[in-house]
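Incident log, structure service

09:12 report received: a user says their structure output differs between two submissions of the same chain.
09:20 pulled the input from the user's history:
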Amino acid sequence: MNTLKGKSVSFNNNYLIVELEDGRIISTPLDWYPELKNATLKQIKNYKFICKKTGIEWPDLDYHLNIEAMIQGMFIKRKIISRKNQYRTIQ
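09:34 re-ran on a clean worker, output below:
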């Protein structure tokens, strides 16, 4: 059962921020979502929760985002960064 249900969405210059109904906050880089980063302020403010609040839709952009995928993306990006750091040689 997916318990990641959205309550609100906000943005700043660098991050997409989603507050969940249980009080947690997910923040991911806007660079991960070129469609949102390149959108106008009016377009990104026009969102609605879909799929029992487990996803977000931006109708003006025809763009959809699953909240759980935000968490998975954070994990995957961290894992890749961690692997890259593991193989760096220090001189």
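09:41 both user submissions now match this output. Likely a transient worker issue. Closing.
09:42 reviewer note: The domain at 6-86 is CATH 3.30.2020.40 (NE0471 N-terminal domain-like). Confidence is low (pLDDT under 50) at residues 77-82, 85-91.
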